[in-house]
Each structure stands twice: as C-alpha cells, then as structure tokens.
Amino acid sequence: MPYRVGESNAVDVLQVQAGDALKHLHESEYSQTSATTASVAGALCISLQRAGEIVGELARAGLADSHGPAIQLTGAGREEARHLLRAHRLYETYLANETGVATEDWHRRADLVEHTLSRQEVDALSNRLGRPQYDPHGDPIPTRDGSLPPRRGRPLLEMPEGSSAEVVHLEDEPASVYRQAADAGILAGARMRILRRGADFLRVAVEDRQCQLPLAVAAAIQVEPCEAPPAVKPLSSLSRGEFGRIASLSATLIGGERRRMLDLGLVPGTRIERDFDSMFGSPTAYRVRGAVIALRREQAERIFLEA
C-alpha cells in the first residue's frame, strides 16, 4: 500500500476546510463545549463570512444542524468527522512508527493525507499498525465502527509540587508549543517530577535534567500520576572502561530508531560498557551482551543508565 510519506496529492481547499470544520464540531461535542460560526472561523483561521458558508454547505449535505447560534453534527456528520480523525491519527502513528519524518511534521502531513485515504485504506493501515487505540500525541483513535476510546489524563498544571507524572497526551497545536515541549524531551510516555510552579513557569525534572516550561506549554500537557522516576544518567557520561546498567530509553527515541536500539539489546537491566572512542570522538563503541556496537553521541545521550 503506497502511503504518502512525501508530498501529498493535491487536495481541494474547500474539501479541506469542510473537513476541518467537521473535526472542530466533533471536538466541541467531545469536550462538551458549544460550537458556533465564530468558533469555526477561529478554529480554521477564516472570516466569519466564509465560516457561515461552510456551515451552510455542511447543513445542505446533511452533516450539521443549527439550533440558534449553536451548531451540531448529525449522525452522518459525526461518522464523517470520525473517519477523518481516524485517518489523521493513524497516519501520524504510521509516520512515528515507520518513518524518519520529524515529529513536528507529523500533524501537517496527516492534515493533508487524511482527506485522500479511503475507508479501506484506513482499515488496512490500522491492521498494519496493530490497531492502536491512541496516536503518538495520546489522542484516542476512533475504531472501525466509529466508537472512540476515552481521553486520558489530567492537566499537568493540576499536579502538586513534589509529585510525579507520566505524559499521556500532548497537544500538537499550536506547533510552536508542541516544539518547545518536544525539545525538552516531553512526549507521550515521558515521566517527570514536578519541582516548582512560578508565576509564569513550571519547573520539572525530565529524565536526567531539569527544564522550565512556560505555562502555555505546560497547559498543553495531560498526565497521569505515577511512581517517582528513578535517578538516571546518560550513557554518554561513561568514561572508557566504565560500565553501567540500562534503566530506560528516552521518550524521544521513537519509531525505527527505538526499534534498532531494542534490537541491539539495549533494554532495561542490560550491562553495557564503554569500549573505545573513534578518532573524532563520535561514534563510540560500547560492549553489550558480548557484542560491540557503535552509537553516535546524540544517541548515547538518550539512553539512560541507573544512577
């Protein structure tokens, strides 16, 4: 099946806007908030006039109804919205698991491809990926019959100082907020300790470092309480001849790169020794399970040892 990892096929702008409006109406319904023409305009960054035209088009197609200023999906509209969400979130999962596409590009590419995948293609993609329930950001993926798993987690900002939490959802819009969180190593699956909340920041400890998140970034993160993560140090901190035991892999190691690390035997509890460095300092050779493997410094910095 030729999944569209490169530039997507051209998609009609009006088709994209109508689909995005359906997704907005669905999100409003799912979060139990009211959708209006103004909220459609804001979500799609279009004029009120154009938003009104789109709402009218959806109504004529039997996909939406207006009740005063409130706009609601019909059964057919809900089905179409969930198909688009299913296509989008499965495609993001595909990009994360099976390609080298940068994390910040997943959403943009999926936004285009979701409009070109048939229901049969989406079903095939789901089967190929093992029928995941959640995408890489932690968003629930609608099932083939249209049901939707529950959204998980609570706002990070509700967690008290001194508590520990695991990231279960990270908003992928706006892109600038997502990028700041990802750059700090905060992706779905990352564990952290909440250190301090200031007037305009939240200080957390993630993996082997501390970082200070603007409140706008922290507000985009949903978490679940967890046990305090153990103290760790990066594999790159070993000197030649020293050894340690692997505690975890960074949440930023994803897809094929993560699978390669696991295939090399880099799993929790494994003993690993720094063997020798290359002439230029990177890559470095490590001895693990009787074999010698080479890792670049940026890879070794995302493999953590028991401290």
Q: What's the level 1 CATH class of the largest domain? A: Mainly Alpha
The coarse overall form would be: elongated
Instruction: Tell me, rounded to a whole number, the average pLDDT.
Output: 89
CATH superfamily of the largest domain: Winged helix-like DNA-binding domain superfamily/Winged helix DNA-binding domain
Largest sheet, in brief, is: 6 strands, antiparallel
Across the major sheet, the strand order is 3-8-4-5-6-7
Number of domains: 3
Through-space gap between termini: 45 Å
CATH fold field value of the largest domain: Arc Repressor Mutant, subunit A
Q: Helix and strand string, N-terminal first? A: HHHEEHHHEEHEEEHEEEHEEEHE
Rg, rounded, reads 22 Å
What is the CATH-assigned architecture of the largest domain?
Answer: Orthogonal Bundle
Which spans have pLDDT < 50 for at least 5 consecutive residues?
Answer: 5-10
Task: Describe the structure in your own words.
The protein is an alpha+beta fold. It folds into three domains: about 15-130, Winged helix-like DNA-binding domain superfamily/Winged helix DNA-binding domain (Arc Repressor Mutant, subunit A, Orthogonal Bundle); about 155-225, Roll (SH3 type barrels), CATH 2.30.30.90; about 230-305, SH3 type barrels (Roll), CATH 2.30.30. Helix content is about 35%, strand content about 25%. The chain has ten helices and 14 strands. The chain has helices spanning about 15-30, 35-45, 50-60, 75-100, 105-115, 120-130, 175-185, 215-220, 255-265, 295-300, and strands spanning about 65, 70-75, 155, 165-170, 190-195, 200-205, 210-215, 220-225, 230-235, 245-250, 270-275, 285-290, 290-295, 305. The strands form three sheets. It has a six-stranded antiparallel β-sheet with strand order 3-8-4-5-6-7. Strands 9-14-10-11-12-13 form a six-stranded antiparallel β-sheet. A hairpin with a 2-residue loop joins strand 6 (about 200-205) and strand 7. Helix 1 packs across helix 2 (about 35-45) and helix 1 (about 15-30) packs across helix 3. The protein is elongated, with a radius of gyration of 22 Å.
